[in-house]
Design goal:
The chain has 262 residues and is of the alpha/beta class. It is built from 11 helices and 9 strands. Strands 1-2-4-5-6-7-8-9 form an 8-stranded parallel beta barrel, surrounded by 6 helices. α7 packs parallel to α9.
Length: 262
């Protein structure tokens, strides 16, 4: 097997974590944006309760409110998931928690509200949405929400500057780098190239990777896994994808009506 020209730098610039630091994250599959479907909308308290009742970990998304609060919401715009319009960032948390999610009586939760609900029952994967601009405000919002939390939780992002921020400002928080070898946004586009992925890895210094299932098996993911960097994979929706994940990843982030497993 030919050694990647980047492999020699990985151990120096992005050391693999202590196994005990990441082991708690690899115990159960994660419900993507909560266990939604069947009338339960993504990133809602109902979907999160369903994941807890199923004993699944929870993957969720964070957007920043105008007043600096971490909101559990995937899109930067309200348009797709609510009857409101405009950017999440233009509303305060007090305004956002009153906005109903489309077709439901549930409203947009804050990260603090979700943490209170979970209370350590299942693990949390907190994906921080960040593209252009400074990452400090949204990272700080997440760090503040996690202060004093004793349950299993980790942050992750496509943007390697998020991992870098947590490494510098909250090194106790487990952090991941989300990777796709396809995509259109600024950071997903950059992560498509082998050299760009390596540079992002060295910058983020993650404790784990969260990898697009469509790209597995991947030489890059396999190389990191062999040296002790765990690989989660998203979004697993089919039996074929689950079989791929069983050999190419350490745990799955799934979106299925009846996920395999107890």
């Amino acid at each position: 097997m030919l050694l990647s020209p980047f492999a020699l730098f990985d151990a120096i610039l992005s050391p693999a974590p202590d196994a005990g630091r990441v082991a708690p994250l690899m115990q159960r599959p994660y419900a993507h944006r909560g266990l939604h479907g069947g009338g339960l909308i993504e990133n809602s308290m109902g979907a999160f309760n369903a994941a807890i009742n199923g004993n699944f970990g929870i993957e969720l998304d964070i957007q920043l409110a105008r007043d600096g609060a971490a909101m559990v919401f995937h899109d930067d715009s309200l348009d797709r998931l609510t009857d409101e319009h405009g950017l999440v960032l233009n509303r305060t948390s007090d305004e956002l928690v009153k906005i109903k999610l489309a077709g439901t009586s549930q409203t947009i939760p804050t990260l603090s509200h979700l943490i209170t609900l979970v209370a350590g029952k299942v693990a949390l994967l907190i994906e921080i949405k960040s593209d252009d601009g400074p990452v400090g405000p949204v990272c700080l919002a997440v760090r503040r929400a996690l202060e004093g939390y004793l349950g299993t939780a980790a942050v992750m992002s496509f943007n390697p500057r998020v991992g870098q921020w947590f490494k510098d400002n909250a090194p106790h928080v487990v952090r991941g780098l989300v990777i796709t070898e396809r995509g259109a946004t600024k950071w997903t586009h950059r992560l498509r190239g082998g050299s760009a992925r390596a540079v992002s890895l060295w910058r983020a210094k993650p404790d784990f990777l969260a990898y697009d299932i469509r790209d597995l098996p991947s030489p890059f993911a396999s190389r990191q896994r062999r040296r002790g960097l765990p690989v989660l994979t998203w979004t697993v929706r089919t039996a074929d994808q689950e079989r791929t994940a069983a050999t190419a990843a350490d745990e799955i982030i799934f979106e299925r009506p009846d996920p395999v497993g107890p």
